[in-house]
């Protein structure tokens, strides 16, 4: 599985690290990144497609 990092998202959406963090941590419009224990893996293509289609964390639950 391919994971997209903060750097990948910064390029994809032309936004900075803080904006991307706010999308998932504060605004809840982007699902949180996947983790393996304490290691941040990143976001999957499926998560990004949901975000781009306007599906939020709230709707997914």
Please provide a written account of the structure:
With 61 residues, the chain is mainly α. Helix content is 48%, strand content 11%. It has helices at 6-13, 17-25, 45-52, 57-60; strands at 34-36, 39-42. The longest helix is centred in the middle third of the chain and has 9 residues, at 17-25.
Any key phrases for this structure?
61 residues; 48% helix; 4 helices; mainly alpha; two-stranded antiparallel ribbon; globular; 11% strand
Helix-residue proportion: 40-55%
Question: Helices and strands, in N-to-C order?
Answer: HHEEHH
The value of Rg in angstroms is 11 Å
How many strand segments?
2
What's the story with the biggest beta sheet? 2 strands, antiparallel
Distance between the termini: 23 Å
Uncertain ranges: none
Overall, the morphology is globular
Q: DSSP helix count?
A: 4
Structural class: mainly alpha
Strand percentage: 5-15%
* Sheet with most strands: strand arrangement: 1-2
Mean pLDDT: 90
In short:
This protein has 61 residues and is mainly α. The chain contains four helices and two strands, in the order H-H-E-E-H-H.
